[in-house]
Design a protein that fits this description.
With about 300 residues, the chain is mainly α. The protein has one domain: ABC transporter involved in vitamin B12 uptake, BtuC (Orthogonal Bundle), CATH 1.10.3470. The chain is about 70% helix and about 0% strand. It has twelve helices and two strands, in the order H-H-H-H-E-H-E-H-H-H-H-H-H-H. The chain has a two-stranded antiparallel sheet. Helix 1 packs antiparallel against helix 11 and helix 10 packs parallel to helix 12. The chain is globular, with a radius of gyration of 19 Å. It starts with a helix and ends in a 19-residue tail after the last helix.
Length: about 300
């Protein structure tokens, strides 16, 4: 039981940044915008967050700075793709490359500088439940925030008028515009929300998961978050399942290497990505109602003047 508890705790740690980034990108894509710059926003959040935390001595200010950095990167993307109707795929790729390079400059003075991580919060009574309490209710604030985001986004998209309008902008922006809704403004706000979530995911990496800065520490997690959104068929609860599936496979392959499983280490390291691709193909082949993406995803919208 102790071993199982330790494995589950590490799975939650590995999955949380993926879930935070994926849930933000899910909202962005539901509005009809395809932002491939999640990796760049994440790593900028990680760099700015750790630098701000070290400079001010406050983890809370570090998290706030990381969220602001993610939103600033998202604002650049929004200005290009929504304001100038630039190609969303090209702008997203450029944003990732720009973020990776800029983060190296921002965090250059903080490489290897130790920083005390953000502690865990034990929820009264719930944390005393045997096994489950230790696993679910003695976590850091980011884990609780990821749970709240999944529930909140699901409620927002499917139970509120604003969520219906946002989804309409992703399905048929021309009709939404004809009804008087400001499609570009709605999409821009969705892009900012996605940037905030990506920045929060980056802050988790540098302030909780490994409380120090290292260039390239996102290690492709932004791209995995993009794949999770498709795997989830643009549904929040499925996104949580996908994030924990990938996180679980990542941790299990590390345990397999430690246990001396007679397979090449390169194959074991690639196993999470291979399984993600296989599951993605299977889900998309067997998807049923609600499994498709927004009809206008990635298509620029220029309202009639």
């Amino acid at each position: 039981m102790l071993l199982l508890e330790a494995i589950l705790l590490t799975v939650i740690v590995a999955s949380t940044p993926l879930l935070l980034a994926a849930i933000g990108e899910l909202v962005v894509e539901r509005s009809g915008v395809l932002n491939l710059g999640v990796e760049g926003m994440m790593i900028m959040g990680a760099a700015v967050g750790i630098v701000a935390a070290i400079t001010t001595g406050s983890s809370a200010l570090g998290v706030a700075a990381a969220v602001a950095a993610g939103m600033a990167m998202a604002a650049i993307f929004g200005a290009l793709t929504l304001g100038l109707a630039a190609n969303q795929v090209a702008a997203g790729l450029a944003l990732s490359i720009f973020g990776i390079g800029l983060s190296g400059v921002v965090g250059a003075g903080s490489v290897g500088v130790p920083r005390e991580g953000i502690g865990q919060i034990a929820l009264p009574l719930l944390s005393d439940i045997p096994f489950i309490g230790h696993v679910l209710f003695r976590q850091d604030p980011f884990v609780y925030a990821s749970f709240a985001l999944v529930a909140g986004v699901s409620w927002f998209l499917w139970r509120t008028r604003a969520g219906l309008v946002l989804r309409a902008c992703g399905e048929n922006p021309a009709s939404a515009h004809a009804l008087g809704y400001l499609v570009l403004r709605i999409r821009f706000l969705a892009v900012l929300f996605g940037g905030a979530c990506a920045g929060l995911a980056g802050a988790y990496l540098s302030l909780v998961m490994t409380p120090f800065w290292s260039s390239g520490m996102t290690a492709g997690r932004g791209w995995i978050a993009l794949a999770i959104v498709v795997f989830a068929s643009w549904l929040p609860w499925r996104a949580a399942l996908g994030a924990y599936l990938f996180g679980g496979v990542t941790i299990l392959q590390l345990h397999a290497q430690g246990a001396g499983v007679p397979l090449p280490t390169q194959l074991l390291a690639a196993l999470p990505y291979l399984i993600t691709i296989l599951v993605l193909v299977l889900i998309m082949a067997l998807r049923r109602g609600g499994g498709g993406g927004p009809q206008s995803l990635g298509t620029p919208f220029v309202p009639d003047r």
